[in-house]
Design goal:
The chain has 493 residues and is an alpha/beta fold. The protein has a single domain, classed as Glycosidases (TIM Barrel), CATH 3.20.20.80. Helix content is 41%, strand content 13%. The protein contains 17 helices and 14 strands. An eight-stranded parallel barrel has the order 1-2-3-4-5-7-11-12, surrounded by five helices. A two-stranded parallel sheet has the order 6-8. Strand 11, helix 16 and strand 12 form a beta-alpha-beta unit. The longest helix is centred in the middle third of the chain and has 29 residues.
Amino acid sequence: MKKTFPEGFLWGGAIAANQAEGAWNVDGKGPSTADVTPFKDPKDLEQLKDIHGLSDVTDEMIEKALGSDDENAYPRRHGIDFYHRYKEDIALFAEMGFKVFRFSIAWSRIFPKGNEEKPNEAGLAFYNDVIDECLKYQIEPLITLSHYEPPLYLCTEYNGWSDRRVIDWFVRYVKSVVEAYKGKVKYYLTFNEVDSILRHPFMTGGLIESRFSPDEFEEVEYQAMHYQFVASAKAVGVIHTCDPAAKVGCMLTKVTYYPYSCKPEDVLLAQQRMRAVYAFSDVQVRGEYPAFLTSMYRNKGFHLDMTDDDLAILKSNPVDFVSFSYYQSTCIAADESGLDTTAGNTIIGVKNPHIPTSDWGWQIDPIGLRVSMVDLYDRYGKPLFIVENGLGAVDKIEEDGTIQDDYRIDYLKAHMKEMYKGIVEDGVELMGYTSWGPIDLLSNSSNQMSKRYGYIYVDLDDYGNGSYERRKKKSFDWYKEVIATNGASLFEE
């Protein structure tokens, strides 16, 4: 029997506005956290391990950024110019046969400060054009409503998501978006990697850490997280009311932790880390806080502003499906002395000696994707959607103009085969797959262009030099064949 993915499986790719659009001050857009995040140019693995240093921003840094028009010092401001080239890019996605295209809406393009009474019509018009361009090719838009770029004004004036008022401003933004695109968009995600506020609080939550004392900041992060949970639940309610046919998902950073050894201490710590991963999707899927978080709050002496109305809103508005990013697994050890550590998707972990590692220190583990699928589906029993997965690598243009990225094909093929096993052998309901960065864009963790993910090469380097010309890689035609055969080509030798 021919091996294929389920009928109607949604193959596609995913980008984020802050890493691709550019046009940071065009057509009324206000500045976001992304627009003041400077280029750090990490040179080695040790610098890449400094997750906090790569993403932290102070008031002084913001003031300096706002006084500068330099788009190379702040590369999110130019991205890959998707804002002006979206028709060309979507046409290339259509040529590959995309069934779905995941992209995010920049909140500050719709509400420049974040808290205005009425939306910026030019911003709504831009995304309407992007949606229409997708639909022209029968590509379903999958929209992320918040992807690492809160409006900067909310951060500087209200301390970002630590202020309860931001909930209602976010809901107003969501309502404006859904009313504008009702009937055109079937799939929404509320917050990208909602758990990431603990790893990069400025980028995700608009929290300027230097404004708080070290003793209080962890509690501030969890308070901001709670307000995002409430905002997400309210957004689910707004979307379901405004467009009952639309489906809404949460989005989780799916890190899979393995115990480094069979020492009970390692096994226990791995279990605790996994409970910490699932705690955030638990709230959005089950509509209530898990024992892991409530126990932690109690043990740390946290006193969060968490009302009965908040909890009722969470319970009344669970998400319809669970989406997640998966790039690598990592090991965990109670005692890391003498063990190698390596970087990952905004995490640091103990290096697994049994699997290979990418040039950026991310460990490559296709089986870990299957493990993740099974764990999430067994836990929640709701449809899953893999919305980020891919390999960041240095690509070389050959003398004949081709880009022979077989390493990317090998990575993706191995992961897709494990996806198939998860569906067919393990019974997981998987809606679709959007690989990360179908076109080269700025890396989130390092702000680099040299860390490329795409099937489409963009002529742009780490320092802003290049023509922005698009060029197909070898993986372009490979993925086109995967989609055309609904995965059957993966199993042809």
